[in-house]
Each structure stands twice: as structure tokens, then as C-alpha cells.
Amino acid sequence: MYSVLIFFVVVQGPYKTDKQAGGTNEVMSGLRPDLNTRQVLYESWAKWTRWYKYQPVYHIREYFGEKIGIYFVWLGKTNVLFAYLFCMLNIFYIFCYFCKSLVKVT
Asked: What is the reported pTM?
């Protein structure tokens, strides 16, 4: 396991850019050609502030491979589906709660 992690670090380079490491590089964007795949994924995907954005599926597939890329696509679609289901069930629950309070049971 550690040999695979070391391989990724050696081959791909650091995941933080010069700007994040304290250098004086300009502001990074995910579309710059001088960034490696790890830096693009770190900038556009692997941050807590990016939870609402779509996953960069092509970059994930390029970095991790086909099987793990498909897994992340499936996981993302399933989470969106569960979020919609959760919202609909909450609306239904609130509707039933208010209807129950309006109808008097004898």
C-alpha cells in the first residue's frame, strides 16, 4: 500500500501549488496547463469548500483509472438522488403533520 502512495507522490509531484506552499505564484485555476493532475484535483475537487460543485470526472478517471472513476460517478449520482429523496420526504412529512392537525379525529 505504501509503495503505491509513494509511487503517486514521486510520479505526479506535490499536490500543493507554489501559491499554497507560500510562494509568490499567481492565483491558481483548474484549467492551467502547467498544473499536474494532482494539483488540478486538489484545486477543483478535494476541498471542503467545493462540496456543491460537480465532480471533475475526467480528471478523476485520468488520475485514478476507469474503475475508481466509475465508482465516484456512481457515488455522486447516488448522493444527489438521496438528497432529492430526503427533500421530498421532508416535504411529505411536514404536509402530513399539518394535515393531521387540521383534521380532528373523534
From this structure: 0.57
